[in-house]
UniProtKB/TrEMBL annotation:
The keyword Cytoplasm does not apply. SUPFAM superfamilies: Nucleotidylyl transferase, Ribokinase-like. Pathway: Nucleotide-sugar biosynthesis; ADP-L-glycero-beta-D-manno-heptose biosynthesis; ADP-L-glycero-beta-D-manno-heptose from D-glycero-beta-D-manno-heptose 7-phosphate: step 3/4; Nucleotide-sugar biosynthesis; ADP-L-glycero-beta-D-manno-heptose biosynthesis; ADP-L-glycero-beta-D-manno-heptose from D-glycero-beta-D-manno-heptose 7-phosphate: step 1/4. In the N-terminal section; belongs to the carbohydrate kinase PfkB family. Homodimer. It holds the Pfam family CTP_transf_like. This is Bifunctional protein HldE. InterPro entries: Bifunc_HldE, Cyt_trans-like, PfkB_dom, RfaE_dom_I, RfaE_dom_II, Ribokinase-like, Rossmann-like_a/b/a_fold. Catalyzes the ADP transfer from ATP to D-glycero-beta-D-manno-heptose 1-phosphate, yielding ADP-D-glycero-beta-D-manno-heptose. It catalyses: D-glycero-beta-D-manno-heptose 1-phosphate + ATP + H(+) = ADP-D-glycero-beta-D-manno-heptose + diphosphate; D-glycero-beta-D-manno-heptose 7-phosphate + ATP = D-glycero-beta-D-manno-heptose 1,7-bisphosphate + ADP + H(+). The gene is hldE. Residues 9-304 form the Carbohydrate kinase PfkB domain. GO terms for biological process: ADP-L-glycero-beta-D-manno-heptose biosynthetic process. It comes from Sulfurovum riftiae.
Length: 476
C-alpha cells in the first residue's frame, strides 16, 4: 500500500469509452395509444462506462490517467469529454472521428427494475488515420507512463493492428501492458504482460469447459503459453483470482458481503495495473486487486475502491496479525485523518509498556471503551533510557510493540523517539487523550490538542517496577 501511495503511478488507458445513461421513473398507467406502460420520468443520470469505469477506478486509487480513445464528432462525445474532465483524467489523446457515433447505452428503470435498454453506437474499426494518431501520441509519451491498460469492449478502438503495435511499443520500453480482453480470438493480445478474462471468457477463448479445478488449470496455462503472456490469470468473480506460475494458486476474495459484481472486472484491471506499475510482484498485485474487488462487490452498481477503503479493509482482515497494527508517523496521520472524516472517535494514550502485565491490559481495555479506535504511542528504547536509566527497558522496542499490537483492545501502535509524544499527538489529533490517575492535578502533554483528557486508575499492586523487584529478589 505504501509503495502505491508513494508512486502515484501514471497510467495510459486505451480502449472503448461510452456513456451509461439511466432514466429513472415509475409506471402507474397504461398508454391509451397502445398496450404499453407509461413511464413517468423522475430523473436522468450519465456516467462513464466501458473503459471509463477503469479510468474512474484508477483515479479513485490516486493514479494519474491519460485517456487514448476515439469518439464520434457529436453531442455525446462532448458529454464524454466533460465527464472525463470532471473525473480528473488527461484527455489530450481523445480523438474525434467524423461520422462515427459515440457509444451511449440508455437504460430505462422503473421501480428498481430495468425494463429496456437501447444503444446508440458505432462498432466498426476506427479509421487508419485515427489508429495512427493514437499510436503516434503514445509513442511520444510512452516514457512518462508506468503502465498501459487496454480496455477492449469490442467497439472498434482496439483494432488487431493497433493492439499489436501498442503491446510491442510497451514491451520495447519495459512498460507493463495489461488487457481486459473481448471475444474468442485473443491472438491480437499476444505478448501482453497479462490478460484478465473471467471464467466464461477464458472458456470461450480456450474452448475448455471450466467446470472443475483441472480444467481451470489447463485453461490458465493454455492462455499463458499460446499468447506468450508474462503472467497468466483468470478472475473468478467473488471467489478471487487464479494465478498460473510454477503451479496454480487461487487467491480468494474475502468479501464481507456481495451485492453486485457489476464492474468488478474493471476494478481488478485497474488495481493490477497500478500495483504492477508501483513495483509490487504479481502475487502482491493480485492480493491488492482482490481487496479492491471485495470492496466493490459490496456496493451496488459500477463502483470504485479507494486506497483508504482498502487500508481499512486490510485492517479489518488483519486484526489478529500484530505486525500489521504497528505504524509510523506518516501512516498514523493518514489513518487518523480518515477515521475523523468517517466520524470515528479516536482515543490516544502512550507509555513505555516495558513488561506487559495485567495492569496494562486493564488500563488499555478501559481506554478503548471510551471510543472507536485506540492508538498507543510507544516510547523508543532510547527515550526510556533517558527517562528511567540505563537498566531499562527490559524488553526492546520490537518486542514491546508486538505484544501491545497483539492485544484486542489496541488498534494501532506507533513508536516515538522523543521524551514526550507531543509531536505524535499533533499528527493523531485525538478526540480523547487518556493518562493514568497519577496525572491528577498535573499538566498532561497534548491536552492542548485533544478535545478532552480522561484519567484512568491503575490496578493496585500491578506495575512494571514491582515486577522487576519481584524478579530481582527471587532465587532459583
Amino acid at each position: 500500500m505504501d509503495k502505491i501511495r508513494a508512486k502515484k503511478a501514471n497510467i495510459a488507458v486505451v480502449g472503448d469509452l461510452m456513456i451509461d445513461h439511466y432514466i429513472w421513473g415509475s409506471c402507474e398507467r397504461i398508454s391509451p395509444e397502445a398496450p404499453v406502460q407509461v413511464l413517468e420520468v423522475k430523473k436522468e443520470s450519465n456516467v462513464l462506462g466501458g473503459a471509463g469505469n477503469v479510468i474512474n477506478n484508477l483515479i479513485a486509487l490516486d493514479s494519474q490517467v491519460s485517456v487514448y480513445t476515439v469518439l464520434g464528432d457529436d453531442a455525446n462525445a462532448t458529454l464524454t469529454e466533460a465527464l472525463l474532465n470532471e473525473a480528473g483524467a488527461d484527455c489530450h489523446a481523445v480523438i474525434r472521428q467524423h461520422e462515427r457515433v459515440t457509444t451511449k447505452k440508455s437504460r430505462v428503470i422503473a421501480s428498481n427494475q430495468q425494463i429496456i435498454r437501447f444503444d446508440d453506437e458505432s462498432r466498426e474499426d476506427i479509421s487508419l488515420n485515427s489508429q495512427h494518431a493514437l499510436l503516434t501520441d503514445l509513442q511520444k509519451n510512452i516514457f512518462s507512463y508506468d503502465a498501459v491498460l487496454l480496455s477492449d469492449y469490442g467497439k472498434g478502438v482496439l483494432t488487431p493492428n493497433l493492439t499489436r503495435d501498442i503491446i510491442s511499443l510497451a514491451n520495447a520500453h519495459n512498460k507493463p501492458v495489461l488487457v481486459d480482453p473481448k471475444g474468442a480470438d485473443y491472438s491480437k493480445y499476444t505478448g501482453a504482460t497479462l490478460l484478465t478474462p473471467n471464467k466464461k471468457e477464458a472458456s470461450l477463448a480456450t474452448g475448455i469447459e471450466l467446470d472443475n479445478s483441472e480444467a481451470l488449470e489447463e485453461a490458465g496455462y493454455k492462455l499463458k503459453n499460446e499468447f506468450s503472456l508474462t503472467y497468466s490469470i483468470i478472475t473468478l468473480s467473488e471467489e478471487g483470482i487464479a494465478i498460473f506460475n510454477d503451479e496454480m494458486r487461487i487467491i480468494p476474495t474475502v468479501a464481507r458481503e456481495v451485492y453486485d459484481v457489476t464492474g468488478a472486472g474493471d476494478t481488478v484491471l485497474a488495481a493490477l495495473g497500478i500495483a504492477l506499475a508501483s513495483g509490487l510482484d504479481i502475487n502482491q498485485a493480485c492480493e491488492f486487486a482482490n481487496k479492491a474487488a471485495a470492496i466493490v462487490v459490496a456496493k451496488v452498481g459500477s463502483a470504485t475502491a479507494t486506497l483508504n477503503e482498502i487500508e481499512e479493509y486490510e485492517h479489518s482482515l488483519n486484526k489478529g496479525q500484530a505486525e500489521s497494527k504497528i505504524k509510523d508517523f506518516a501512516q498514523i496521520e493518514r489513518i487518523s485523518k480518515r477515521l475523523r472524516a468517517q466520524g470515528r472517535k479516536v482515543i490516544f494514550t502512550n507509555g513505555c509498556f516495558d513488561i506487559l502485565h495485567r495492569g496494562h491490559a486493564t488500563y488499555l481495555q478501559k481506554a478503548k471503551e471510551m471510543g472507536d479506535f485506540l492508538i498507543v504511542g510507544l516510547n523508543s528504547d532510547e527515550s526510556i533510557r533517558r527517562l528511567k536509566g540505563s537498566s531499562r527497558p527490559v524488553n526492546d522496542l520490537e518486542d514491546r510493540a508486538f505484544l501491545l499490537a497483539a492485544l484486542e483492545s489496541v488498534d494501532y501502535v506507533v513508536p516515538f523517539t522523543e521524551d514526550t509524544p507531543y509531536e505524535l499527538i499533533k499528527r493523531v489529533l485525538p478526540d480523547v487523550l487518556v493518562k493514568g490517575a497519577d496525572y491528577e492535578g498535573k499538566k498532561v502533554v497534548g491536552s492542548d490538542i485533544a478535545k478532552e483528557v480522561k484519567l484512568i486508575s491503575f490496578v493496585e499492586g500491578k506495575s512494571t517496577s514491582s515486577l522487576i523487584e519481584k524478579i530481582s529478589g527471587s532465587t532459583c
